[in-house]
Amino acid sequence: MKQLPQEIRKNRLNCQRQIGMLRLFFYVATAGSFAAGASDMVDNAVASALGNFGILLILYRLYVLGPLLVARSSLGNDRWVDAEAQWVEDNYPWLDTVGKAGWGLLVVGVVLQMFLGIA
Question: For residue 43, what pLDDT band results from cuts at 50, 70 and 90?
């Protein structure tokens, strides 16, 4: 992985607290989702586990995108948003696939529970 460009490093330093709080939230939510999915697997609730693992992947994507989310919520700094978006695309080209897989697992889990009655 490449070093952060100077502009991104400077902007992240200015918003370090917001990025840290957001990442902490997603970290805890990801851990909770994993624990719920693992518990569902132990209880043979496969559909529920698929949904929880889907949520896990979605939250992981948001964890990685934390600095970009903070950049987008900052007022008037479009250069930082563009730089963050480009850095994420260059260093995590598979991140969109992770998000799509998460949504797919979540939909499959919900469909199995709602229409087929599988736990």
Answer: very high
